[in-house]
Specification:
Alpha-Beta Plaits, Aminopeptidase, 18% strand, three-stranded antiparallel β-sheet, seven-stranded mixed β-sheet, alpha+beta, 2 domains
């Protein structure tokens, strides 16, 4: 997710040649000081002051103690490596920070895909049938992360996929925990996604595309594989129309924490992933494909009081 501000092209031009720390810090500060984000500034500063003395140690807070303003802030991540990354995600948190130290987040509501409820658009099926794109896994992880970090539509060069995040996920990828989906048109990388596999949960971190519908094709192929491989769910983090159209539904923080703790503790699929040729056609019928159903993964009805449309209009993603 990259952030666009008003008058963004002059800002982008101004900071394009600035040193990376200065560019990220200045743009991040401007982003934080947007009026609608100001209510979360004091709680953010308080949490930072609380955790700064312990920054040299791993910090794994309880997601149930997360703030509602800013939505989902749990605290600083402290010294974090792959082991701590997996432990935090297994608790239902994720790392994100536009500026300053990495922080743990657990928003009030989370978008989750149970694979038997996935939806595949007709356009996606047609593109799979026509073999316009070539889909691979784990062949260009760094390039996918770099593409996901780029500004959208000429936006300012501000992203939460910072150098710290890239280094952390590069190491997780090297250890077989983080994975990428690549969508190719000829020899050009035109779409993809990356995320973290923890037990039976896949956490989608970010997606990108430079060719229309490329990311949708890659995401569909990924979810088909995850279902066949015995994963219980795919986490999409914040509510978006795109995720809702893919079949994701909102659950509460407590519900997601329980899902992550339970399914994340199972034996996972660690190591390099490769695409299975039988899963590249347009014949996937999620409700009939087997695997872990929504009823098996989450046998209760969610207590989330909001519809997706209401969440999209009233709740925003974390801001720092």
């Amino acid at each position: 997710m990259a952030i666009s501000l008003r008058n963004r092209q002059p800002l982008a031009d101004l900071f394009a040649t600035a040193p990376y720390p200065l560019r990220q810090g200045a743009l991040g500060l401007a982003y934080v000081l947007v009026p609608r984000r100001l209510p979360g500034l004091a709680p953010l500063i308080a949490a930072t002051i609380r955790d700064l003395p312990h920054l040299g140690h791993p910090l794994l807070p309880d997601p149930e103690d997360a703030l509602d303003v800013p939505d989902g802030l749990c605290g600083l991540a402290g010294r974090i490596g792959v082991e701590e990354l997996l432990a935090g995600y297994r608790r239902g948190m994720f790392v994100m920070s536009h500026i300053g130290p990495l922080k743990w987040w657990a928003p009030r509501y989370r978008m989750v895909l149970f694979f038997d409820q996935a939806r595949v658009e007709k356009t996606t099926r047609r593109l799979l049938r026509n073999n316009r794109f070539r889909i691979t896994f784990d062949e260009a992880f760094g390039e996918v992360m770099e593409a996901c970090a780029q500004p959208r539509n000429g936006g300012t060069p501000l992203t939460w996929i910072t150098r710290k995040v890239r280094a952390l996920f590069d190491e997780a990828h090297a250890q077989g925990h983080a994975h990428s989906v690549e969508v190719w048109e000829g020899d050009a990388l035109v779409g993809g996604a990356y995320g973290l596999a923890v037990g039976g949960v896949f956490f989608t971190e970010s997606q990108f595309h430079t060719a229309r519908d490329a990311s949708k094709v890659g995401f569909s192929v990924l979810n088909r594989h995850l279902q066949a491989w015995g994963f219980a769910l795919n986490d999409g983090k914040h509510p978006t129309r795109y995720l809702a159209d893919c079949g994701m539904q909102p659950v509460t923080r407590s519900e997601f924490t329980n899902l992550a703790l339970y399914h994340g503790s199972h034996i996972g699929r660690v190591g390099r992933w490769t695409v299975e040729p039988d899963f590249l056609d347009d014949k996937w019928v999620p409700a009939e494909a087997g695997g872990i159903s929504r009823q098996q993964a989450f046998p209760l009805e969610s207590t989330c009081p909001w519809s997706v449309d209401e969440l999209l209009s009233t709740h925003r993603s974390p801001t720092w």
